[in-house]
């Protein structure tokens, strides 16, 4: 007998495995953007997604893929809803997701900043967190550009192994 | 999606019958599935007006930033400008969509972006000024990002939960925009005689437009503290300047907004209802 709980787990597993369109080595679960999957009393599977950035162009793609996969798995009624609050943070990237990023040559984010009360301070001093090289693990690295191919990535290079790498910056 | 042929898989026919090329289509409601209810006691017309003004600031800024594409001094900085514009465009889409939910018209985001004349726009005039040189663009971005960030920090406590959530998300983005712009202003101000002179000229040009920003939101002290921090580090000076008469928030604009909108809206106006 199929219980609603195990059915919700099955639906969750299907949604969790959808790859991120821009970082395809990560699943939506790895990225931490799949907030919830539940089955309502009328049998609708409701998957909740949160955008990484306000302008994330991959959001519509994620939504469509989650809906298509759930539909293909036999769920007749599927809804994908957007959750804005609380806002996504790179802290929600799972340990598995961080490992996969590093394996693909992308430095995973450090802990997200936790602002105190009052206005967010502007720091102009050059001292920033050292980002270890994802290839050789050297701490002798430097930022080359604050923005990379997507909003969530910056460009860095390693002075030890001389390789450039991308870095998922923490927010 | 097949990983083997990424271009083919992006263009493939999906089960929903929607052929997609990369991310160029499927611009559905960015608030899809978010509870549209307006809390009791919130003035809907006021909320709509506030969302519209903030959406207009973001859309016009995003359009100016996008104009740098293929023209920026370096590829890396072009990507920064484009990514900042993309964040702001995302904020505009959310704010327009919220506006359409609460202003009683039921309009979608496109109606606000593409089907209004310049007089209907409520953006501050600093956002619509032409890009000028790179110095003016980064000075303007520093001012607007600092101002919007200070206001968004307050909006995270707004009685409207959707606007508060849009602001909470935007705060993280705007802090990064401000950081990028501040570092460039310091680099240029503390750079060569030429870069210093141009960046000082950019501050002189922006200064008369600041009064309008502070008339819109009570964030003067926070913004001036940040600008002072940056100009001190850069060896620059924000000159006192009497505010220009008129307000973009009232629909009063410079002659520069109409050509910007002509370009932005040309396709949507020439082909009503077009999708691609």
Automatic annotation (TrEMBL), chain A:
Annotated organism of origin: Streptomyces hainanensis
What InterPro entries does the entry give? Fe-S_Maturation_MIP18 (IPR052339), FSCA_dom_sf (IPR034904), MIP18-like (IPR002744), PaaD-like (IPR011883), Zn_ribbon_PaaD (IPR056572)
Domain (MIP18 family-like) spans 17-72
Q: Which residues form the PaaD zinc beta ribbon domain?
A: 127-168
What name does the UniProt record give this protein?
A: Phenylacetate-CoA oxygenase subunit PaaJ
Organism lineage reads as: Bacteria, Bacillati, Actinomycetota, Actinomycetes, Kitasatosporales
Gene coding for it: paaJ
Q: Which SUPFAM superfamilies match?
A: Fe-S cluster assembly (FSCA) domain-like
Q: Which NCBIfam families match?
A: PA_CoA_Oxy4
TrEMBL record, chain B:
Q: Name one Pfam family in it.
A: PaaA_PaaC
Could you mention a single GO BP entry for this protein? phenylacetate catabolic process
What SUPFAM superfamilies does the record tag this protein with?
Ferritin-like (SSF47240)
Position of the signal peptide = none
Domain of life where this protein originates: Bacteria
Identify the GO cellular component terms for this protein.
cytosol
Instruction: Return the protein name.
Output: Phenylacetate-CoA oxygenase subunit PaaI
């Amino acid at each position: 007998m199929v219980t609603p709980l195990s059915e919700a787990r099955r639906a969750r597993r299907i949604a969790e495995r959808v790859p991120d369109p821009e970082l395809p080595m990560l699943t939506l679960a790895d990225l931490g953007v799949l907030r919830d999957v539940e089955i309502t009393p009328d049998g609708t599977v409701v998957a909740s997604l949160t955008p990484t950035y306000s302008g994330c162009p991959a959001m519509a793609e994620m939504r469509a893929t989650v809906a298509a996969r759930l539909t293909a798995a036999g769920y007749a009624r599927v809804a994908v809803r957007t959750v804005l609050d609380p806002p996504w943070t790179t802290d929600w990237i799972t340990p598995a997701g961080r490992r996969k990023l590093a394996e693909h040559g992308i430095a995973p984010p450090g802990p997200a900043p936790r602002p105190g009360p009052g206005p967010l301070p502007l720091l102009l001093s050059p001292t920033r967190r050292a980002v270890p090289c994802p290839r050789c693990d050297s701490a002798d690295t430097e930022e080359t550009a604050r923005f990379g191919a997507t909003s969530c990535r910056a460009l860095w290079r390693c002075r030890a192994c001389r390789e450039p790498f991308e870095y998922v910056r923490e927010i | 999606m097949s990983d083997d042929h990424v271009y083919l898989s992006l263009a493939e026919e999906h089960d929903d019958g929607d052929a997609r090329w990369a991310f160029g289509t499927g611009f559905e409601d960015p608030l899809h599935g978010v509870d549209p209810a307006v809390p009791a006691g919130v003035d809907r017309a006021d909320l709509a007006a506030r969302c519209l003004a903030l959406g207009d600031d973001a859309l016009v800024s995003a359009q100016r930033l996008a104009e740098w594409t293929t023209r920026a001094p370096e590829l890396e900085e072009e990507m920064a400008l484009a990514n900042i514009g993309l964040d702001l465009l995302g904020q505009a889409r959310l704010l327009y969509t919220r506006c359409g939910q609460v202003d009683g018209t039921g309009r979608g985001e496109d109606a606000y972006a593409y089907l209004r004349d310049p007089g209907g726009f409520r953006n501050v005039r600093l956002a619509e000024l032409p890009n000028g040189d790179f110095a003016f663009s980064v000075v303007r971005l520093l001012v607007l990002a600092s101002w919007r960030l200070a206001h968004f920090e307050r909006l995270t406590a707004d009685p409207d939960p959707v606007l508060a959530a849009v602001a909470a998300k935007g705060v993280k983005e705007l802090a990064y925009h401000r950081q990028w712009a501040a570092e460039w202003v310091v680099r240029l101000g503390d750079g060569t005689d030429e870069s210093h002179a141009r960046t000082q000229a950019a501050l002189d040009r922006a200064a008369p437009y600041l009064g309008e920003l502070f008339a819109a939101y009570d964030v003067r002290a926070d913004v001036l503290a940040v600008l002072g921090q940056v100009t001190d580090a850069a060896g620059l000076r924000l000159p006192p300047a009497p505010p220009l008469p008129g307000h973009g928030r009232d629909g009063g604009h410079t002659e520069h907004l109409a050509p910007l909108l002509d370009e932005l809206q040309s396709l949507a106006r020439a082909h009503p209802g077009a999708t691609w």
